Amino acid sequence: MPSLPSANQIRLNSITACLKAAVDTVNTLANNLGFSFFNPISATIESLTKLMEEKPGGASCNHYYLCRLRYSGDLEPKTLHKIHTFVEAQQGGNRIKILLRRSEMNTLLKDCKIGLQNAFDVFKVNTAILSKDINEMQKNAVEKHQEVLDLIASLSDTTDSETTSSLLSRVLSSSFSSSTSLSMLPSMPQIFHGRESELSDILQLFNQGAPRIAILGAGGMGKTSLARAVLHHPEIIHMYGECRIFVACDVALTMPELVALIVNYLGLKLGKNPTQQIIHHIESRPRILLILDNLETAWELPGSRKEIEEFLALLTDIEHLALIITMRGAERPAQVHWTRPFLKPLSPLAYDAAQKTFIDIAGENHDTNEMDKILHLTDNMPLAIDLMAHLVDSEGCATVLSHWDTERTSLVSDGYDRRSNLDMSIALSLSSPRVASVSGTHGLLSLLSMLPDGISDLELRKSNLPTHNILECKATLLRTSLAYISSQKRLKVLVPVQEHMQRHHPAQLLIIQPLFQHYRELLELYLKFDGTMWAEVVPRITMNFANIQSLLSFRLHQEQLDHSQTIYSALNLHSFSLQTGISTVFPLMDLVAASLPVPVDHVHFLSHVIHATHLRKDPRLNTCHFHISPVITGPMGGGTPQ
Predict the structure, then answer these.
(1) Which tens digit of pLDDT belongs to each residue from 5-18?
(2) Where do the domains of the chain lie?
(3) Pairing relation of β-strands 491-492 and 484-485?
(4) Which domain of life is it from (predicted)?
(5) Which helix (H) or strand (E) segment is 213 a member of?
(6) d(C-alpha 419, C-alpha 224), whole Å
(7) For residues 464 and 324, which has the higher predicted lDDT (pLDDT)?
(8) Helices H / strands E in the chain, number of each
């Protein structure tokens, strides 16, 4: 048996019926009187009735909203009632009665106009109040910003100013929530695969006493997750109990900000010498574990580096202090005796670990081939896997792959910080002072983003790149973990970094041209000494096969270039692939067919046709005629060659 309607439901049903009638009334008024403010009134009433009828639970929402209209709205219900009475009287059929009540109707109409005008006046007053509030908020923001600037300019370890101390206390009290206090540690990572070896190595170092450990690696490689796993490991909890402090240092841009932040995490009241406060507090504890996460934010600044390294040295003079820092890059701060053996910079996850991470987030109900394509795009970088897996969980593999073709890394860059925005994480590494201090580093990274096979030191020197300090640029990229040395001893960058650079910082032709010339000469050398120098030339071309295709494709897309040399090089690469059988270049040949120069050099093309026919061993190679014969026999090629 259906439940009886409540008293509120009965009232709201009655109100709904009245509102439907009111819509017609207001629309009639709008048509007859021409007042523009009737339109929003009508739209509001229609929205209320629609919500009442269609949305579950909408009745209670509308009841609350109508109460708000009654007690705090700008347009009083009695005004609406008078409008309804006026229109109802005008629609009556007795003209004599209307004439006799003319004076009454005029009075009613006047009251309606007064009520509407009052509502309009209230609206203007509320708008003015809102504008004033916004101005006050902007003024307060400017004042707070100036306070922070004053703090940064004036605060130092040696200052004796009570004003500075009180100012810092105010900023800290308003800037850091309770989540950053000593009692609130970050949670244990719930999905943690592929770092078991590193975790075991760190725990082994704790068996030697209180270690000093630097967890290094590229942005998004899982340094913070590894530190959190150490923080919550049962052995560490047994050793240090409540004396475990995890400080997120990414908000500290200078040495004074860093020490003030640590003081806050320790639960201390800021004094005149915060560095000594920290030292004395730690010395008074029997044992303590201090983790400084993302320390590179302040350490990278040249003006702060020496101070921070001296501060770390003071900390590590305390024998019972275990110190762990996480930093982007591959170099450790100086002046600290880091515990041996050093922990290697974190590398991408192994495939099995990457697959487990993906499945834990996105589930198992995905096509294996599509999942492998997704993981290839991430290059097994933990942050990229996490973001892509969450996207797949909501949209599916096929949709994500189709969107990736156009959006690239921006597809997983909607977050607000480095842990939820891939582009932001990469951009933070690119903006590092270490990168900015060495000219040419950005240019080399943009070139590496075009080279899937990477590049060797020998090729860097022989290609005559327009960068005088090329080895210094290489060292900078390695120090910041924007690049790495592969198992083949080649300088490479991860796929997410490649995609970010190609989208936001594409390589310039000036830096690509020397390497293209080097590859072109290498291919010509192969054809010139056909078979006689294979032992030397073939491995060099093979190691750069994807690089050559990438540069040739890039040049074929540049309309302003003369494509003759590019096309000849593409044909030479095609001949190489036919003869060695190491790979195919059919997608590249599609671009060649669309980019052929006019008039066509028939002799050169015929030589390749004959060469390809002579080498044909695979039916798939028949496609070479598909690409070349239309050019030779077509009208743009001058007809049938002789």
Answers:
(1) 555 566 666 666 66
(2) 7-125, 180-328, 351-412, 510-642
(3) antiparallel
(4) Eukaryota
(5) strand 212-217
(6) 10
(7) 324
(8) 31, 6
Instruction: Tally the C-alpha atoms within 13 A of residue 5's C-alpha that lie toward its C-beta.
Output: 10
CA nearest neighbour of 21 among 46, 47, 39: 46
Secondary structure class of 186 (helix, strand, coil): coil
Q: Which residue has the tokens 């003024």?
A: 139
Report the alpha-carbon distance of residue 21 to residue 16 in Å, rounded.
Answer: 9
Q: Which pairing describes strands 212-217 and 321-328: parallel, antiparallel, or unpaired?
A: parallel
In CATH, what number does 180-328 get?
3.40.50.300
Give the pLDDT mean for 540-562. Answer: 90
- Tell me the average pLDDT across 520-549: 84
Judge whether 413 and 421 are in contact, CB under 8 Å: yes
Q: Please give the helix or strand (H or E) that residue 342 lies within, else none.
A: none
d(CA 642, CA 639): 9
- List, as own/partner pairs, every contact residues 128-134 make where C-beta atoms lie below 8 angstroms and the sequence separation is at least 24, other chains included: none
At residue 318, what are phi and psi to the nearest 5 degrees?
Answer: -85, 110
Helix/strand/coil for 217: strand
User: Residue 217 forms beta bridges with which residues?
Assistant: 328, 346
Using alpha carbons, list the distances in angstroms from residue 539 to 257, 523, 526, 529: 53, 12, 11, 15
pTM exceeds 0.85 = no
